[in-house]
Amino acid sequence: MAVSLAQTTLFSKTSYFLRGNALKCFTFSVPFSSSSASVLRTGKKARQPIVSVLELGGVKIAKDDVVRDDPTNNVPDTIFSKLGMQLHRRNQHPIGILKNAIYEYFDTNYSNKFDKFDDLCPIVSVQQNFDDVLVPADHVSRSYNDTYYIDPQIVLRCHTSAHQAELLRRGHTHFLVTGDVYRRDSIDSTHYPVFHQMEGVRVFSPDEWEASGMDATSYAAEDLKKCLEGLARHLFGAVEMRWIDTYFPFTNPSYELEIYFKEKWLEVLGCGVTEQDILRKNGKLNNVAWAFGLGLERLAMVLFDIPDIRLFWSSDERFTSQFSKGQLGVKFKPFSKYPPCYKDMSFWINESFTENNLCEIVRGVAGDLVEEVVLIDNFTNKKGMTSHCYRIAYRSMERSLTDEEINDLQWNVREQVQSKLKVVLR
Ligand code: DAH
Fold first, then answer.
1. CA–centroid distance, residue 161 to ligand 1 (Å)
2. Which residue in 205, 128, 210, 130 sits closest to 174, CA to CA?
3. Ligand 1 neighbour 248 (Cβ under 6 A)
4. What is the pLDDT along the chain (426 residues), one digit of tens a residue?
5. Handedness of CA 214, 218, 224, 227 (dihedral sign)
6. Which of 145, 291, 372, 388 is most buried, most CB within 10 Å of its CB?
7. Is 347 helix (H, G, I), strand (E, B) or coil?
8. CA distances from 193 to 167, 315, 367 (A)
9. Which of 124, 129, 135, 159 to mutate to test the pocket of ligand 1 (most atoms within 8 A of CB)?
10. What residue ranges in 134-287 does DSSP mark as E strands?
């Protein structure tokens, strides 16, 4: 098994099935200036105020369009505040530097044939996010526990594969899509509810595989592997690699590429030969194609030695000033590590309790001051009641936290866990 690092591919987990239109596209402005101003004024970092309307190119999107107090909506303010940040479009940011390095590989090796998209709207329909890429109706990724729903038909994309179908329909045959993606998840140093992915697709026409004497699928699979091995070498140098057979709803056969890096097998990406159904439904009747998807944080953490995924969102100069345009793989030098503070919390859970819901509350209260939420004890008593004890690690990457502010956070978490999750604190 490869090490699990920074948001592993959700769609490859076959076992995770559910227990239980044309969309107006908005573009966004970049609401990230306020926090640095407040640091300058107070010397302390204040929580970022939430911008209530985003605007770019004259199109406005109001917070009320995305966050609503309605059971069909599970998007919190903290997530709304990330829309439009577009870390992947900042040339001096590790995510942007990595994106550019991958673009460079494709531009050089395919003479600029790949069309690049990096500002497609992250608000997509359920159809685009799931149906268009053949995600089964009962797949766990469709649940409210895993995906952010704006309403029953509209979600924040949970992968860049959401754009495959529309781009094929628009006639593109070679393309790369980079964007922010959103997933409800647990909290630790490699998981964050917003991260960045890149999707690649290449479509072949019959003359290409016919000339090779191979069948279409083998031809595409071989080309795919050659292309991605080259990409891995471009990013990581001469590393050992291996291919693992896996499952994705959108490809068949499907593979994961792993590299041996720093004495561990690391999963780099998921990929495969595109399901014929996706091609046929989108105007590619006589073709074969390959596709891949990779998580940029996962690779950037390894390439730049970034120890905590929250750092990507930091506007602290001690982080941002360490990276420059075009400099892939500069090693991040941690500024002094501030001490963590642990708080335990035990409660009797109920049937609807999920860890993702708990983590959403903790993030809502503590924001990026929470480093990890871990289940440390779990038992069921004779009456059949189940108790969970979670340990919450609070740690700022930028300063020491005071006892008083941590106690305030913890009281707030306890109160909300009780009132929103309807669990009984012990
Ligand atoms: N969408 C997948 C995920 O987020 C990643 C992926 C795997 C994309 C295989 C692809 C693919 O295009 O062929 O887990």
1. 6
2. 205
3. yes
4. 444 445 656 677 543 333 333 333 333 333 323 333 232 233 334 445 567 787 543 456 889 989 999 999 999 999 999 999 999 999 999 999 999 999 999 999 999 999 999 999 999 999 999 999 999 999 999 999 999 999 999 999 999 999 999 999 999 999 999 999 999 999 999 999 999 999 999 999 999 999 999 999 999 999 999 999 999 999 999 999 999 999 999 999 999 999 999 899 999 999 999 999 999 999 999 999 999 999 999 999 999 999 999 999 999 999 999 999 999 989 999 988 899 999 999 999 999 999 999 999 999 999 999 999 999 999 999 999 999 999 999 999 999 999 999 999 999 999 999 999 999 999
5. negative
6. 291
7. strand
8. 26, 18, 11
9. 159
10. 149-151, 154-156, 174-182, 194-204, 240-248, 251-261, 264-274
Atom of ligand 1 nearest to the CA of 160: 1
Ligand 1 neighbour 134 (Cβ under 6 A): no
For the chain, the distance separating the N- and C-terminal CA atoms, rounded to the nearest angstrom, is 38
CA angle 136, 171, 112 (to 5 degrees): 110
**C-beta of 9 in contact with ligand 1 (< 6 A):** yes
The model's pTM is: 0.89
Structure tokens at 332: 């991040």
Give residue 270 CA to ligand 1 midpoint distance, Å. 5
- Provide the residue type at 392 as one letter: I
Distance 31 CA to ligand 1 centre (A): 29
Contact partners, residue 381, CB within 8 Å, separation at least 6: 387
Separation between Cα atoms, residue 42 and residue 26, nearest integer Å: 35
Two structure tokens written together for 180:
């922010």
Nearest residue to 135 (alpha-carbon basis) of 14, 275, 250: 250
Given its phi and psi angles, is residue 185 left (phi above 0), alpha (psi -120 to 50 degrees) or beta? Answer: beta
